[in-house]
Amino acid sequence: MFQTSLRPHARPVLSADFESAFAVARRSACFGAPATATAAPAAERLPEWNLADLYPSMESPELKADLDQADAECKAFEAAYKGKLADMLAAPDAGAALGAVVARYEAIDDLLGRIASYGSLIYAGDTSDPARAKFYGDIQERLTDASTHLLFFTLEMNRLDDAALEAAMADPALGYYRPWVEDLRKDKPYQLEDRIEQLFHEKSNPSRGAWSRLFDETISSLRFTVDGQELAIEPTLNLMQDPREEVRKTAGLALADTFSKNLRLFSLITNTLAKDKEISDRWRGFEDVASSRHLANRVEKEVVDAMVEAIRVSFPRLSHRYYALKARWFGKDKLEFWDRNAPLPKVETRDIAWGEARDTVLSAYGAFSPKMADIAKTFFDKSWIDAPVRPGKSPGAFAHPTVPSAHPYVLLNYQGKPRDVMTLAHELGHGVHQVLAARQGALMAPTPLTLAETASVFGEMLTFRRLLEAAESPKARKIMLAQKVEDMINTVVRQTAFYTFERHVHTERRQGELTADKIGEIWMKVQGESLGPAIHLGAGYETFWTYIPHFIHSPFYVYAYAFGDCLVNSLYAVYEKAADGFADRYLAMLSAGGTKHHAELLAPFGLDARDPAFWQTGLSLIDGMISELERMEG
User: Fold this and answer.
1) 3-state DSSP call for residue 290?
2) Strand order in 398-400's β-sheet?
3) I want to staple 247 with a disulfide (CB 3.0 to 4.6 A). Which of 242, 338, 391, 411 is the partner?
């Protein structure tokens, strides 16, 4: 999943902090079950990333020097400009002068982001290592302290006179940053008095950040007893993709057992963070529990509501219908929850070597756009990917953009199965997006989550279509279609259900703390509605809300996946009808970073997310795939 910046970037007004970015995008955890069941071939050496492009080591003089420079630059920036922006705006050369100030702010932002990214990536490599955990925590504290000196800037910018600022942007020096300025001013109604903003900012790390870190370290330390073995969460979740039903059942019950033993802690974390968000929302004046996320995503509530409703009414013809079909394939009336992502019965699976996965994705990208493939190839050639499963390593997968002056990194837990190839395609899609958007600079490269999933899901679609075209038999085609349908249901239906679950939890938390039983009750109700009668949600499944990191690290993030999947389905339909020139328009869209609203970005493709019919296009593609599977059954 795409990573938002760790640093205060375009919108520090709302008390940005240095939350663990890698945790926001654990792809397999979010989708409900990772993609694989067994480890990659033992003889194969998988790539590990080289973080020396950021800093040589945790103890390096270069890192110490940059930390000291960050402290000095933040203090100097405050001393030079605090309380002076209004006077600068009144001067004859206001545009040039303010443009230079924003450019200096951007340079500091890039420096802070480089340091923060290194700390996060080091920690992601082994969250169980006390030395790394301390390093990560110390980095967060140093950067929070330093960036406190920057808080005044965006607050003062939003107090400047609209007409005078508009006139100043006629100068190219400030006009270049128009998208950032206009984006910033959308936060104006929700910003607080300066000292309150400073308090929110300084408390973010020892409060919300600390609870998030506790969640990370707890999840990484959990062990699950499976046939006498003590396994971490990643390999245990992977066993729920095993071809053998008894293995899936054992893994599912082991997960439920350990989750249930830790319910008090997870409930406390959830209640604390939900209350923390309620306090922030109340002080800022956000009326709806998800309003702050919609603002950050630069998407209208009406658009999100239309998408959620379109998906909700489609549950019967999508997830309910597909799982009923899958149950028939298994010769059952209902599937147990540990069978939901099981491979099809009587289907042989094989390990896919890393080299084959690499070539598959690059070939699919290259057939669409040689430029896209060239960028993706750089990740392999320059050690920007960390692929092996290791004890303590962050589970799932992510693409971290770091900063424009550096380059992105991709984390995977590659274990050699077809869905791992899709995960690689997904994260490289993010990586390509991040490389292309970097030209916009540190302030304008970050993309709202609703658009950030576009490149990743499109990369998956390209790879899937490439594999489907090469299917050697109807049976092979059926397997690929089934896997794709399941992935799309996990992305569209499941994420919409997750969003609904979060809305219920945060709404009810406003009336008081929720017990673990109450949270589990909400979870089971929402999951039952979304998955349908062909999935039996037996005892133990009421605890499975506990391990999904998005609920902790980035509330209401999840609907961005459904948004991205439906958007890509619509984009791909345009591509199939008019391929000429599409790739150029698509890469131009990615290169825009965060400089354009979704309506402006989609206009060249004749799409409009505000049109209710837009969502039906994406959902119809899933419907059509299920129909093809039903015809194969006959």
Assistant:
1) coil
2) 385-386, 409-411, 398-400
3) 242
The count of other CB atoms within 10 Å of the CB of residue 285 is 11
- CA–chain centroid gap for 506, Å, is 20
CB of 179 within 8 A of CB of 447?
no
Quick one: 12-288 is in which CATH superfamily? Answer: Oligopeptidase f, N-terminal domain (1.20.140.70)
Which tokens go with 317?
């013809």
Give tens-digit pLDDT for 242-256. 999 999 999 999 999
Kindly state the helix (H) or strand (E) to which residue 248 belongs, with its residue range.
helix 245-261
With H, G, I as helix, E, B as strand and everything else as coil, classify residue 325: helix
- Which pair of tokens denotes residue 493? 């239906």
Query: Residues with Cβ < 8 Å from 172, sequence gap 6 or more?
Result: 95, 99
Q: What is the pLDDT of residues 17-36, one digit of tens each?
A: 323 333 333 343 333 333 33
Dist. CA 4–CA 6, nearest whole Å: 7
**Cβ-proximal residues to 442 (8 Å cutoff; 6+ apart), any chain:** 5, 7, 9, 106, 107, 109, 110, 113, 403, 404, 405
Q: What's the rounded Cα separation, in Å, for the pair 563 and 570? A: 11
- Summarised one tens digit per residue, pLDDT across range 439-472 is 999 999 998 877 888 899 999 999 999 888 888 8
Domain regions of the chain by residue span: 12-288
Measured in degrees and rounded to the nearest 5, phi and psi for residue 534 equal -85, -5
